Amino acid sequence: MEYKKLNNNLKIPLLGFGTWQLKPIFEAPQAVAAALEVGYRHIDTAHIYFNEGSVGKAIKESGIEREDIFLVSKLWNFDHNKVEQAYEKSLKKLGVDYLDLYLMHFPVTKTRISAYKDMEKIYKEKRVKSIGVSNFTIDHLKELMSQTEIVPVVNQVEFHPFLYQKDLLEFCNKHGIALEAYSPLSHGKRLDDTTLETIAKKHNKSVAQVMIKWSLQHGNIVIPKSRNLGRIKQNFEVFDFKLNDQEMTSINNLNEDYRTCWDPTKTS
111, CA 20 to 30 Å: which among 27, 91, 122, 134? Predict the structure, then answer.
């Protein structure tokens, strides 16, 4: 596994395992257990996924030491006025004493600044190892950094070849904010792209592996998700090949600002 050093010197595994839409009883425990067995050591969940309990159970039953797993959860929109309680609730569900990273899930208008200040308080009290945001645009980040003390370590956003957010990536890099790519496979809606298929065939890899590798080579943290045990393993096998400059450019040019999730650019 390769790591990235965050702006507070904490190291995060570059490749993580996402758990969005994994059902708490029939999917999340098995998928997380499989991911940990394969070698993932970065697990991403959230209050609104309703599977924190299952994720925590899978981690505990894996036998892997807590300090060897980078664990992430998120503050939901309706909890901006009770950050401390929401954080403690996530810890209790996960069955852990701390999170490695706590993210604001969405830049809710009017409450995001005050909520982030409450997250700063938890961080200063050393109850969480790092704090960050998710779905923030450049304007959201500028506002946040002008009114708060701690620069987010991460901005987790939708990022894949068909939503190549180049300006946002450059802004994050400039300010020491790691961009973390969710939905790196565009929810499987572009896996039949001929450009990606050609590149994948050249490297004897899958299109999904090429999409993950493209994002990693942009310096991102990437969190693919799958229910399929074979694909969980396959998505992890991306450190044994490299895309050349021409291939990277060809994939960059696939951008069409195509979103498969919510659009934070419409949030003032």
Answer: 91
Backbone φ and ψ of 208, nearest 5°:
-60, -45
3-190+216-240: what fold?
Answer: TIM Barrel (3.20.20)
CA distance 133 to 98: 18
What pLDDT, on the 0 to 100 scale, is given for residue 26?
86
Distance between CA 157 and CA 159 in Å, rounded?
Answer: 6
251-263 pLDDT, tens per residue? Answer: 999 999 999 998 9
CA–CA separation, 79 vs 98, rounded Å?
Answer: 18
What is residue 167's three-state secondary structure? Answer: helix
Distance CA 109, CA 112 (A): 6
Say if residue 132's pLDDT is above 90. Answer: yes
Per-residue model confidence (pLDDT) at position 148: 98
**Where do the H-state alpha helices sit in the chain?**
28-38, 52-62, 83-94, 112-124, 138-147, 166-174, 194-203, 207-217, 229-236, 245-252
DSSP 2-49: -EEE-TTS-EEESB-EE-TT--TTTTHHHHHHHHHHHT--EEE--GGG
Reading the block at residue 19, the tokens are 């758990």
Best CA proximity match to 237, nearest among 197, 210, 198: 210
Task: Kindly report, residue by residue over 12-38, the tens digit of the pLDDT.
Answer: 999 999 999 999 988 999 999 999 999
Q: Is the pLDDT of residue 183 over 90?
A: yes
Q: Any catalytic annotation for residue 49?
A: yes
Q: Which of 40, 49, 87, 182 is catalytic?
A: 49
What does the block give as tokens for 203? 């490297």
Helices 229-236 & 28-38 angle (0-180, nearest 10): 40
Helix (H, G, I), strand (E, B) or coil at 205: coil
